[in-house]
Amino acid sequence: MTITPDPLSPILEAPDKVPCVVAQLGQSLDGRIATVTGESRWINRDAALKHLHRLRAAVDAVVVGIGTVIADDPLLTVRRVPLRENRGQPARVVIDPSGRLPSEAKILTDDGAACIAICATGRTPAASCQILHFARTESGLCPHAIVKTLFNRGYKRLLIEGGASTVSRFIDAGAIDRLHVLVAPMIIGSGKTGLDLEPIEKLDRCLRPPSTVHVLADGDVLFDCDLAAARADLRDGPQTR
Ligand SMILES: NC(=O)c1ccc[n+]([C@@H]2O[C@H](COP(=O)([O-])OP(=O)(O)OC[C@H]3O[C@@H](n4cnc5c(N)ncnc54)[C@H](OP(=O)(O)O)[C@@H]3O)[C@@H](O)[C@H]2O)c1
After folding, report:
1. What pLDDT, in 10s, does the model give residues 49-99?
2. How far away, in angstroms, is 240 Cα from ligand 1 center?
3. How far is the CA of 230 from the centre of ligand 1 (A)?
């Protein structure tokens, strides 16, 4: 009998001495996360949404880009599953280089969960929350620097929840250990795509992560992809793993 591993195990069992960064994306069969008008609720069904909340419950902080806060105004709390024993709600982190965070955003709700805005040096949102400043480089704010700073503040396990641009930047930077792609058997055919990475020319330079596949109760499919291993394979060759 083959026992399919719990996709949360690599996160829950990650060593405390280094950061553990997981990203998630929910998408259609054709890799879309919204229609041309931006409608995105809901592509994935209940079991996938429950999985997203299990991911939130497994981490110390949930990170989103400011585009997601402006488009969806998410609360980013664990609600569809119980919190894990001895753990509260994860902190909420928004990457907001230009200080666009609206002061009425739901992530600022005073419910005990920390809220942190990651801004470019010299930019501060009007909203009241903790602010961390980072230097803006040609490619934006450095994902590794963000991960390191959050780790040093005790946020060791991070969920990069979206949107597409934020997850793509973190993958391009090599800052994601695991990627959970939740695929709904739905064809949208146009509209916003999920991942949009730096172009590569050769298929043998693509990430080909070792993955486990989980068919969820209502038919969506979870791909749990080991991106850290895929990067090591590209760097050192698969034989070294
Ligand atoms: N399907 C899913 O799983 C899922 C999950 C979450 C969200 N979404 C959807 O995704 C859409 C929003 O995604 P999006 O790609 O437009 O926006 P996003 O990824 O939420 O936010 C992108 C913005 O965040 C800032 N940012 C993030 N990382 C940065 C970095 N390393 N350096 C500099 N700036 C950084 C930039 O802000 P500035 O522009 O201010 O510089 C960037 O334009 C919404 O439609 C939402 O519904 C889907």
Report:
1. 999 999 999 999 999 999 999 999 999 999 999 999 999 999 999 999 999
2. 35
3. 24
By alpha-carbon position, which residue is closest to atom 34 of ligand 1?
140
Nearest ligand 1 atom to alpha carbon 141: 32
Q: Return the DSSP state at 193.
A: B
Best CATH choice for the domain 19-195+204-240 from the list 3.40.640.10, 3.30.420.10, 3.30.465.10, 3.40.430.10: 3.40.430.10
> 88, 82, 154, 87: which is closest to 116 by C-alpha?
154
- d(Cα 123, Cα 99) in Å, to the nearest integer? 5
Residue 189 token pair? 């055919």
* pTM of the predicted model as reported, rounded to 2 decimal places: 0.96
The answer to whether residues 221 and 183 touch, using CB atoms and an 8 Å cutoff, is yes
What confidence score (pLDDT) does residue 237 get? 80
Tell me how far the alpha carbon of residue 171 lies from the centroid of ligand 1, in angstroms. 13
Mean pLDDT value across residues 94-121: 96
Strand partners, 65: 95
